[in-house]
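Hey, I'm writing a tutorial for new members on how sequence and structure tokens pair up, and I'd like a real worked example in the thread rather than a made-up one. If someone can provide the structure for the chain below, I'll link this post from the tutorial.
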Amino acid sequence: MAANVAVFVYLTLRDPGSLGGTVSAGQYDLGLSARFLTESPVEWYRLISSGFVHFGLLHVGFNMYLLYQLGHLLEPEIGRVRFTLAYLAALLGGSAGAMALQPNGLHGGASGAVFGLMGLAFVGFRLRGINPMNTGIGSLLILNLVITFVIPGISIGGHLGGVLVGAAAAPLLLSPRRVDAPRALTGLILLSVASALIALVSVGAL
């Protein structure tokens, strides 16, 4: 959350117009689009930096509220290191989905990672024999998926990519059968690398 807010404050100070949702030069510097990945050299850092760029106060506020709630749910359960890696893996999953489905858009925001955490929690409940629809996670995920497809301008690929990676990480982190830490960390790193490769291959950067 601190990193997201810090980047938002920096970009707002650099261009106050971005506070109202206007796309600024700073957002172009850190955002994700196919044209930035097909230039030479490939600006691969945008696969990560885009996850910390937000377009307006409402955008960052909504994402940080969800991140706060999901962090309180998941971080005590899986630990700070694995939570951070799961977040980054989902962030890259969002970047991969964005490039696979909407390569020509300008993408930014923590929502890919946040959707990944929702997917992680949803599947985690199922693995433990709990119906996620009887928890707040089920309705939260469904509502946000509906919003994703209804409201124009939202990165559909980013949200779907994030939730898929988060769901894939659940057996590594929330399985009732104990998964040793090295295996869990290795799995999260592999998910991250695979997502980055998918994003680059999708736009022909590799």
